[in-house]
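task queued by scheduler; priority normal; single chain, no ligands, no partner chains; default sampling; output format set to structure tokens
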Amino acid sequence: MKKYIFILIVIIISSCKNSNKAEAADKKVVKKELRPFFDSDKIDHYFVNYTLESIIDFNGKSKKSKKHQEFEDLFMGYFPDSIPKKDFEKTLISHNYQKSKLSDKQQKEIEDIFSEKDSLQMNAYACVPEYRDIFIFKKKQKIIGIAKICFKCGRFQIIGSKIDVQYFGLWTELDKLKKIVRPERYSNLETD
């Protein structure tokens, strides 16, 4: 009888150890290699320090010039809606966007943020975007992608990616991105 109890205890203990190994194996999650939105070799960042109130004439008394309309479309709208044929960077500079100097490390961190996600993005936007930050992705000096970001309300426009970008834009991602490109001005996403 003691022999049977001993064998039963050994079986129970060994099965518990095996189940712990199985649980540990289940907990090991293989991190999926996430593809970047763009196959780029260089990323440029442009920034402008305007506010919505500073560019809109709320009285509507003055007639807008073609250049002012282009800036409003760039700052708040969907311009460009495809990769521009003309020199887009000259357009940005003509509207007082400043080019940031990004290190290789910063470019790699930015590329990691602009990549496929497994998360579910479920945001509703209730503000007019203020696209102060524009990222240009290049391959062999040619623009292959553009990302416009509004850190204030979390809206974004990504042009040129062959990968689905619908899951981009989590506040944690935008927070990381803002820390990379504006560390000296970083405080809180909501107060920009």
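post-processing summary
- The chain has six helices and five strands.
- The CA atoms of residues 22 and 28 lie 10 Å apart.
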